[in-house]
Design brief:
Elements (H helix, E strand, L loop, with lengths): L2 H72 L7 E6 L2 E6 H4 L6 H5 L16 E3 L3 H17 L15 H10 L12 E2 L6 E3 L3 E3 L7 E6 L4 H6 L1 E10 L4 H4 L1 E5 L12 E4 L9 E7 L4 E6 L2 E7 L6 E6 L4 E5 L3
Parallel strand pairs: 1-3
Antiparallel strand pairs: 1-2, 4-7, 5-6, 6-15, 7-14, 8-11, 8-15, 9-10, 9-14, 11-12, 12-13
Length: 326
Amino acid sequence: MDGSQTFQNVTNCLQQFINQCENEKQAFKQQCEQKFKEFRERLERSTQQTLENERRVLRDLRQALDDEIASMQKLPARQNDVVSVNCGGKTLMVKRSTLCAVEGSVLASMFSGRWEEGLEKDDKGNVFLDFNPECFLRIVNWLRLRLLEGPELVSPPSDVPADLRLEFEALVQYLGLETIFPPQPLKFDSNNGPVIEDGMVVKMRSFDGSRFIMITGYDSISTRRQGAVIFSVRLETLSSTAANNSRIGFSEHKLAEWCDPAHGIFYRNQGLKEGDIVKCCFEIPSKQVSFYLNGRLELTSQATTACLFPCIYIDSSSTVRLVASD
């Protein structure tokens, strides 16, 4: 084979290779175009389905809005309407404006007129509320007074009996009124013995002797959620024996007449003097009791029960005041 024949063969092989590459290129291009077309079609179908779902949601929302508007037009509510309420078997006649006095509360929403058809009724057509009537009536009376005197002139009721306090606070929170009904503060419990001033000051007279004074308010909803019972007292005046005998802390008994210095966890320091502030903290989950004197940690102890009751044991001719805890 001569050189020209060899060159021709090489040229033919090269041309075949070029043609093969071109064919593969076209095939790959067609494959890419087909895949892109399929992807675009899937995307368009997905987009169309998403748009259709969003249109369906908007139609449902519009229908719900139209239904609510129709319901409001069907049962127009006016602020001077008188609403008949059966609360736990006790019937009350209350102005709608009273029940809606606290804007944004659950109670106001219930009687705004928007949900009138959804409220449960008794056999006489009165709105039925399965609440303690004594607790609910205290709330209604306070709302009436608030409308008459203005919110800045009225303090929430402070005379809620101890046996109703938890139920009252639970109802206040359920009705969304906790912002205007703060929990009752800790107070000394008057037990027909020493002089109690505003629940915050105990004045022991010379003939009162030594005795336990319980502190109330620790069993509030807010205290339970906080998970601790915390109180602080300032020793304003102390007799010569009170400085040595005073005990401040927690008893295992709820009633003062049953309390015993040996049954509880108390802070006792023979060096106590007038002006000292003793802070007591009982962490309910861990059952740890801590005592601070003038801001300094003095003593920690481990309780064996989660039922401890704050109190003080004070001697005659002494004065003790509850103060805010840091």
